[in-house]
Amino acid sequence: MASKTPQKTRAWYPKYGPHQFDAVRASDGTYTIGGVRNFVYRRDGSGTESWLTGVPVNTNDVVRTWYLLEPFTRFAAIAHPYFVFEMQDGSVLCFTIEGKRLSGEPYSALRGMLSAYELGYIWTTGLDCITMPLTRGALALYAYPLTLTPHESKETLRALLDGTHGLHETPEFYHTILNNCTIRFAHTIRAERIRPLPFDLSWYLPGWSDRYFMRTGLIAPTGDYREARRAHDLVRQAETVWGHIESRGERAIVDILKSAN
């Protein structure tokens, strides 16, 4: 039974953390994220699961934003996006939005429309957002550089960090269609006037979002979207990806993303 009001702390699946971590803004404009997920896996599926606490972020350091899209089924409209912020020093900070489930609770798109899950803003390391999909047998993992300028990337990162703080203070329910990962990102871009994004069905159906971003210029168009997907698919390049990870760890993430472009 879904709770009548969203709550900060419940018995969540471990990958969501014990609660919605905060992102606190200091007087100098820098932020501290209370918890950054660092679930790192190996080719054989083994790995370590930990949370980095008190992670400092300076939005002035971001130089590029990447968009990752993981299809969940053969039905093209069902997928999950990630945003990867590349920093001046070569490090990355990843962001995703989830419908948080209780431990042992299965996901259901129908239940997601009935206030069964709560909205979660999740920050992760680069190894987390790459190795987790690869080891759970992702059908594909498309990696695209967005055409956001460094200033636009900074404003996007700032808005998502502020949104993290807002969600920490006022929890919300997730909705499969009306309050999902893609629609929250699109609303953030529009509300901050970073880019004028026209409404599109992909706001509700994330699996079409890369095609929408190509049409609107957020992803540089490269011809047929099917060809673009093949060229940008990290799963197709998995052997090379694992080689980079095993030799350089977290510092390999930017090179992995660039290799798919």
Overall tally of structural domains = 1
Question: Strand tally, please?
Answer: 8
Share in helix: 25-40%
Roughly how many Å is the radius of gyration? 17 Å
On the 0-100 scale, what is the average pLDDT? Answer: 93
Our measurement of the CA-to-CA distance between the termini, rounded to an integer number of angstroms, reads 45 Å
The biggest sheet, with number of strands, parallel, antiparallel or mixed sense and barrel status, is:
5 strands, antiparallel
Number of helices: 7
Give the percentage of residues in beta strands.
15-25%
Give the strand order, joined by hyphens, for the main sheet: 7-6-5-4-8
Shape: globular
Helix and strand pattern: EEEEEEEHEHHHHHH
Q: What structural category do the secondary elements indicate?
A: alpha+beta
Extract low-pLDDT stretches.
none
Structure notes:
This protein has 261 residues and is of the alpha+beta class. It has one domain (14-259). 28% of the residues lie in helices and 25% in strands. The chain has helices at residues 126-135, 150-169, 181-191, 209-216, 225-231, 238-248, 253-259, and strands at 23-25, 31-41, 47-57, 62-71, 79-87, 92-100, 118-124, 142-145. The strands form two sheets. It has a five-stranded antiparallel β-sheet, sandwiched between helices. The model has no long low-confidence stretch (mean pLDDT 93).
